[in-house]
């Protein structure tokens, strides 16, 4: 049984992320925990729910969450998918951590608009906080994602970290879900080469992939381009459906995912990011 936490603010972004997760794990038995984290403003709105406010009724967030869970149960085509409502007032990241422990969460699935949607109420800059501060594998889903299992998965890496089984096994599971191809991608500056430690890490990774996915992976080295633009070009040329990254390699992940001025997701993409924590 896989336990998936889906934070929601009832936006199109978060609903799309939930739909994507249901498609992705259609072949697995899953508990989906839909979490709404309310603010102090929400406590007042919920207390005054369905009272007239400027001529219009205010809707209780608890009721909206329960209605969403009911809709999921009603329309889910998978008999092995179960849905639960979690509603709490507090700070976003600490509430996420609490429910990861209480529900034994395996994966967080969050929606975002990407570069144009970083100001979303819940799922914009908070996605960056979850990736960097919460020790749990996280799937970031753009609102324009195609609702299908990934066929081509990119793994951009600089080979600066050792790939333990706690990194490799989630990657293996993701590849197997869609019977996907894994494309390992390395961007190098003109004239640069890998050092001994990087070569060792590369060989370890490729040995694992050859044993696990013979014929279903490949290595690509791109030179003379900045990392972010190299990944963008690679994604477009290979029709990539998902990008896998390792949170441990924070310097590398910040080059790709975050704006240099503020820690907000800035990568222009329509494909999900799967961020693995050790």
TrEMBL record:
Task: Give the signal peptide as a residue range, or say none if absent.
Answer: none
Q: Which PANTHER family match?
A: STRESS RESPONSE PROTEIN NHAX, UNIVERSAL STRESS PROTEIN UP12
Family (UniProt) = Belongs to the universal stress protein A family.
Q: In what residue span(s) does the UspA domain sit? A: 1-142, 165-277
What is this protein identified as?
UspA domain-containing protein
Q: Which domain of life is it from?
A: Bacteria
Taxonomically, what lineage is the organism? Bacteria, Pseudomonadati, Bacteroidota, Flavobacteriia, Flavobacteriales
Q: CDD domains given for it? A: USP-like
User: Which is an annotated Pfam family here?
Assistant: Usp
